Amino acid sequence: ISSVHFNFITNDEANDIGCDIETMMADVGAKYSIRSMFQDLQSTLFPSQQQQEQSDGFIRRSSIQYHWENQKAQAVKVTNDGITKEPYESFEDYLACFKSKKRINIRRERRKIYEDEQIRVDVIQGKEILKYEGLVERMFEIYLSTIEKMYWGRQYLTVEFFQMLADSEFIDHLCFICARYRDCGEEFDADDVFAGTFNVVGDGVFYGRYWGCLEEVNNLHFEVCYWKAIEYCIDTGLAKMEPGAGGGDYKFARGFDAALVHSAHYFCHQGLRSAARQYIEMEMKENVEMTEYLKAKSKVGDVKSKNT
To answer: Which phi and psi (to 5°) does residue 7 adopt?
Structure first.
């Protein structure tokens, strides 16, 4: 084994790491025991200055993703627990945070899907998925469609894995957003679904993961991956949406703010470890500065500040 990696965790998730992680680790060599690996992982995520300078173990990397939070930047509520930001009441409430031109563009973008293209988008969550025969297999086909279109695509999951999730208690965390044409009728049929996303919901967070389509429709990706997902989060009271890596420009323009996510990496080769550490230290400084800059330029928060 040349390296070991732990990807990606937010600040809150890093703080929640407990000793039970030991049971999830595999031994990476006699010279690096599970216990010493765990202890080094803790010191990597919560390092002192001396540990940062002297550590020969895990290297902490901070990268940028774009997350959406269900809270109004200027609307606060005072409780016994302190000051909290109020959640959005509806999707229109969320749109009100954007400038007028942006609101018009978003509404036009959504109308093209629902009115011009006559597409309907359904959210199927938890055990409701089991009501529709073949839906799990259809979502696997949709997942596979994106991989097959991209020359760099790699298939990591199998249809058996999808079926295993659906047959387990994990089904309660699954959330499928499915697109089909209106002329298919009111009754939902898995065979009619031609695009959608495979998502996971847990601890108040919506994790967007796999998008795919069997038929290309302009702007459908934005509706299924972003707008409908945000609408679902607001309607169900979820606190946050993490749509995954990539597409930063698209996400930032749609109200997803920059957030640092952290990972820990162990390199067995001393030369490789040294080179990686040098690059990661330079990258981390740039990412911290960029995150602060982008938060100040938030497409949502900045507009709210001007409206108050």
So the answer is: -120, 165
Cα separation of 62 and 55, whole Å? 17
Separation of alpha carbons 54 and 44, rounded Å: 11
Of 46, 50, 41, nearest to 20 by C-alpha is 41
Query: How many beta carbons lie within 10 A of that of residue 274, not counting itself?
Result: 13
Beta strands at 59-69 and 257-267: parallel, antiparallel or unpaired: antiparallel
Q: What is the pLDDT of residues 133-164, one digit of tens each?
A: 999 999 999 999 999 988 777 899 999 999 99
Q: How far is CA 69 from CA 54, 158, 187, 204, 205, in A?
A: 37, 32, 33, 11, 9
pLDDT confidence of residue 235: 97
User: Which tokens in the block code for residue 51?
Assistant: 């540990």
Which residue, 184, 174, 181, 186, is CA-closest to 139? 174
- The residues that bridge with 79 in the sheet, in sequence order, are 82
83-133 pLDDT, tens digit per residue, is: 677 999 999 999 998 999 999 999 999 999 999 999 999 999 999 999 999
